[in-house]
Fold 2,3-bisphosphoglycerate-independent phosphoglycerate mutase.
Amino acid sequence: MSLKKILFIVIDGISDRLIDNKTPLDSARTPNLDYFAKIGINGIMDTIAPGVRPGSDTAHLALLGYNPHECYSGRGPIEAAGSGIELKEGDVAFRANFGTVEGEGSIFDKVVVDRRAGRIDETDELVKALNKIDLSEFGVKVMVRRGTGHRAAVVFRGEGLSDRVTDTDPKKIGSKVKMCKALDENAEKTARIINKFMEEAHRILENHPVNLEREKNGLLKGNAILLRGGGMVKKVESFEERFGLKLAFIAGTTLIKGIGKIIGADVLEVEGVTGNKHTNLKNKFNAALEALNTHDFVLVHIKATDELGHDGDFEGKKSFIEKIDQEIAVLRELDFTEICLVITADHSTPINVKDHTADPVPVIVVHEGVRTDEVDRFSELVAYRGGLCRIRGIDLFNIVLDLTNNTSKFGA
Amino acid sequence: MSLKKILFIVIDGISDRLIDNKTPLDSARTPNLDYFAKIGINGIMDTIAPGVRPGSDTAHLALLGYNPHECYSGRGPIEAAGSGIELKEGDVAFRANFGTVEGEGSIFDKVVVDRRAGRIDETDELVKALNKIDLSEFGVKVMVRRGTGHRAAVVFRGEGLSDRVTDTDPKKIGSKVKMCKALDENAEKTARIINKFMEEAHRILENHPVNLEREKNGLLKGNAILLRGGGMVKKVESFEERFGLKLAFIAGTTLIKGIGKIIGADVLEVEGVTGNKHTNLKNKFNAALEALNTHDFVLVHIKATDELGHDGDFEGKKSFIEKIDQEIAVLRELDFTEICLVITADHSTPINVKDHTADPVPVIVVHEGVRTDEVDRFSELVAYRGGLCRIRGIDLFNIVLDLTNNTSKFGA
């Protein structure tokens, strides 16, 4: 049996609850998605488990055969990996913002006046300076990497660190910067290191030329770095080690890129891919077709449907789905004797909830020989009638490995 | 996101296997239940797992988010809790009957001639006398509480007790009362205590004025107390601790009340609620509507459908279901933007089996935004076509928490 290749199209938060008896997906004109529903087998899926509201990160882990309860360690490590830091087991990683603080005394006596430092973007030199902070007295090294705009990732590396510590970001304007506190005895050293880092970072940033220049121009200084979402990096077996398949990710958002990095995917850079509704879908799908030449499993993530769900924008979501439908037409030319195409989502982001919910998502699996069913359009309102019935993310992954001969018999 | 409230209507054993191509539920005229099916999302449910025959107690635990494999410790503790005894972790509790024994010698030489002591009902004074039995030589205290008719609950409290002991109820007329035996070494003390209790109880009951009066009137004496279903009380986190929701139970039977007590529900007393087919359903549903003002989660249990299933009474079951349908009409007025209504059962009690079976039960979930489906009547024969597909009790619970925003996101 020859091994077939796999293409996952994950449309973030595409599905909804009923609103005035409709949903954006169900009411969108989607002839191409409907075509795939017609020639494929359909179902409804709980990416993690019924009633469990997935994050996009935990959902992607589940869709790729990983148990998020075992290998998920919070958002910090994923954002850090997504920003390009090469993580090691035992690192403690945070998401970070450049913010503006004012007041007298130590960093922890000062008050946050803007959590985004006036949406500062010129952080390259600031980050370079922060990377020079010396924590060698603790046997620890700090790594800082910028993200988009005011965002950054901060990673501490060394022996005996712990992630049982609190955030330093107060998450509220007008509040003092929080001192990092240990949540158990073993985390006390880590808390001391982080507080030392916070003080040093403030000292360096306060008088950094970039900030003095901003001040002169009447802009807020990025004079503090605020940490949140800390997690310790766990050892995660790479996708290739685990399943013997070379994996590529095509995604615009740091979070999804980070998931890719953590499981050892090649995270491809594609021009015009932004992680929002202006993303270049044509480039994305073409990049996927190309990646299938060099990889066994390609995952394409499309973010804007989720954003439009968070915004509660019914018409915007519907029309973006129609745009996806137009561009996805290029996948009709795939050779489904060689490629297994999966179209699904990581979770629902209903217009009337404006956040992720556990409502299950529709799935289409297109491959030679799948048992087609009565479902002839892509909609969360009809997918449950499909031949897959109601499955979980991990089931979908295993079903697809089986369809493509990437699995072996259990028993004789 | 505002938190919505939840109303569960659990109709005990409502569903059946096919008998002459029909079932009581499927052939009953149920316009109101059908209305809820039409405006809701439907499915078929294994309360514990496919093929596992649930008790009403274990099924209710599963429906409320508890794993019965972890927290169920036999019927004794539940009946004792339902009878009103405040249990503590480590107590060993039994269901008990007042029975009639005859013969010479010790209690264990005597023969049971009636397991219900002629359906004795005047047990208040007998129970009072049994509570005075002194087991202080063992460091143990006994608590006895009457149930309906000949029924009672018996609880032993003290250090080092075990539930690895056998029943003293022989469960057969004409058999000798059984000596309690230890099933392992650590239970030997407990067995000695129970046998001492059995002897003392018989000594007191044999010549108790209530029994002497019965004897004079030609009635059987309640001169022995027969123990069965012993279990050790485990620590169970309360529903409010676990889910942050205030829970109310409206139920007529001691078993279901006991489940409520064990997980810390407010077990409401409602006039005319009997746990049989003469129960006042109108009062029950009205009490539920009122309880929704003070509680987040209200469970109404309706028992008679199960009894009629145990009796093999097709027409009786069908007509009681029609009676439920008439009274449940009052719930049509609920505001389903604020309340999530669930109508389901704990298990099937098929007419042709006369006992619980694992055949899955129909479920309706009514709430704003649920994805309605093609199912437009409440029947175990069509529910599988609904949008929920086939789920488990724990799934239903988690799905409802998600629909009502009583859950949080796993991941980012």
